[in-house]
Design a protein that fits this description.
The chain has 283 residues and is of the alpha/beta class. The chain is built from 11 helices and 9 strands. Helix 1 crosses helix 2. It binds S-adenosylmethionine.
């Protein structure tokens, strides 16, 4: 047994993590993960001596954190829309700004039992949040990555949802022979330009999946195809919501002219245009 208690270890860990933006928060999260403790246990055990096994496990986590690993991958989880999600390096870590896609979807006049498609579901964060909020909805969530779909399926079970089907598909490919048409299509597609990759933050480019982020030379490869094909897979009067990158709003809304109405661009919490929403005209 080590001679230090949990409080001393906590302070020492926060000091080691001093270069991160929230050293005390991260120290608490990593100690809880290393010791498999919940919040209450963490505070209750403050004056108890620390087991060497906890200290060893914590050391590994802190070393990884100091080498740049995102906290969410170290913990294997991240909260989104107030719900727990497992994450690993096969999926993008869900971002707070993507909650805008969910918020916008919930504000729409959808039918009582809407059929919803989530393209590029990753951890399943958008589909699962909608599945929780709209229990009568039927949701299909797709991704090109089987690993992502496996994790998204686990996240649906973690959140006790049974109204979502997960299907592997390259964009709309899996639906080309089907007669399915949706009330709502949502997507947070890859939208980073190949040339902007070197400018991304180190934790993003060193740890998150490139395939979840990069979309050709101009970053618009997926959104262009999504917009081009979406109206074929939407009911008349159906809605499309897409997360977009910085500087993409004008071009994306420009493509939404003839078949579309109610075109809106929504800013994120920092004021940047982040989400485009539109309605397929009813004819
Ligand atoms: C930006 S991530 C978004 C993940 C998740 N929806 C979120 O909001 O965190 C884009 C996702 O699209 C998937 N993807 C990439 N290319 C695709 C394609 N051609 N067809 C379908 N999904 C694709 C990636 O595997 C990744 O999971």
């Amino acid at each position: 047994m080590s001679s230090k208690n949990l409080e001393q270890l906590f302070r020492e860990t926060a000091a080691r993590l001093a270069t991160s933006s929230c050293p005390f928060v991260e120290a608490r999260l990593l100690i809880k993960a290393a010791g498999k403790m919940d919040e209450a246990e963490f505070f209750r055990r403050m004056s108890e001596p620390v087991k060497p096994s906890l200290e060893r496990k914590l050391n590994q986590l802190v070393r990884k954190r100091l080498s740049g690993w995102p906290v969410a991958y170290l913990l294997g989880r991240r909260e989104f829309w107030g719900l727990p999600f497992r994450v690993n390096r096969s999926v993008l870590i869900p971002r707070p700004e993507t909650e805008l896609v969910v918020e916008k979807a919930l504000s729409l006049p959808l039918p009582p039992e809407p059929l919803i498609l989530d393209l590029g579901t990753g951890s399943g964060n958008i589909a699962i949040s909608l599945g929780k909020e709209l229990p009568a909805a039927r949701i299909i969530a797709t991704d090109i990555s089987l690993r992502a779909l496996k994790l998204a399926g686990e996240n649906a079970r973690l959140n006790q949802l049974t109204n979502i089907r997960f299907i592997q598909s390259n964009l709309f490919k899996a639906f080309e022979q089907s007669k399915l048409s949706f009330d709502l299509i949502v997507s947070n597609p890859p939208y980073v330009a190949q040339d902007d990759w070197p400018e991304l933050d180190r934790p993003v480019k060193d740890f998150e999946p490139q395939k979840a982020l990069i979309a050709g030379r101009d970053g618009l490869k997926f959104i262009r195809q999504l917009v081009r094909k979406a109206s074929t897979f939407l009911k008349p009067g159906g809605f499309l919501i897409i997360e977009i990158g910085a500087g993409q709003a004008a071009e994306v809304t420009g493509w939404l002219e003839s078949d579309w109405s109610e075109i809106e661009v929504l800013p994120d919490y920092s004021g940047f245009p982040r989400v485009v929403s539109a309605r397929r005209v009813s004819r």
